[in-house]
Amino acid sequence: MAKTSVYILTDGDDPSLAANFGNGSRYVNTKCGASHKDKDLMCKLQVMYDLYMSKIEQYKWFCSVDDDTYINIPNFVKMLREYDHDKDWYIGKPSLNHIYSVKEYQKKRISYWFATGGAALCISRALAKRMMPLCGNGEFIKRGEAINNPDDTAIGYVCNYLLGVPLTSIPEMHSHLEPMWQIDPLDYHKQISISWGEVVASKVIIIPNRLLIRDEIPQFPVSIDPTRAYTFHCHLFPKSDSCRKIQDRLGALPDA
Description:
By secondary structure, the protein is of the alpha+beta class. The chain is built from eight helices and twelve strands. The strands form five sheets. A four-stranded mixed β-sheet has the order 3-8-5-9. Strands 1-2 form a two-stranded parallel sheet. It has a two-stranded antiparallel sheet with strand order 4-10. The radius of gyration is 19 Å and the shape is globular.
C-alpha cells in the first residue's frame, strides 16, 4: 500500500526483499551487527537517519517501524496529515506509564519521555532538520553513548530532552510491550499499529501476545498465522490485492 515510501533497512542479505524493493535503493543492508547490543542498534539508527536526511526534500516525515509491527497504512497517513510537517513534531507512544530516567554521561540523572520503537514513531521534517547538528554524520551514535541507551530511547533523549519537543502520544499505536488481546475487536478498524510477541506471566509461563480474534471474524488458523497479522490485514482490507496475495500463499480465508 505504500511501497514507494518504504525503505527496508536490515543487517543481513535477503534476496527476495532485495528483488522486491530494489537492492541499494529502497532495500539497504546497513552492514551493522545483527545483535541487540547498543552499538549495533545505534549503528542502524544512524544509517536510518542519514538516509532520511539525504532524501529529506522528498518526504515530509521520518518514521521508524520495527519488523514485528503491522501498520494500518490509511490510518497512519490520516494521522500524520493532522500535523504540520513544517513544525516540530515527535509522535508515537511511550511504553512506560511514567517518565524515563537515566544518567547522562554516567553523572547527572535526567528524565524525559520517549516513544517506543515497537509501536512505530515519527519525526517531522522540521524536527529532523533541527536534529542534524546533534545526530548527523555519526553524531547520533554519540548521543546514544551519552546515555548508554540505544535507538528509541536515544531519539527521545534528543527530541524531548535536548530539543524540548514534547512527545505526542497516539493511543491507537501499540507495541509488543502491551497486551494485544485487550484491543476490542470492534475497534480494530481504528488502530494504527499493532505488534506481537510473548508476555512472561511467571518464571515458568510465557503467554503468546497476539490479538484475540473473535470466532465470527474469518481467520487463518493460528498454526499458519501465529502473529494474527495476516488475519488482521484481511479483516481490514478483504478486497485488497495484498489480501489476495496472502491467500494465494496461505490458502483461501475460511468463512467464519
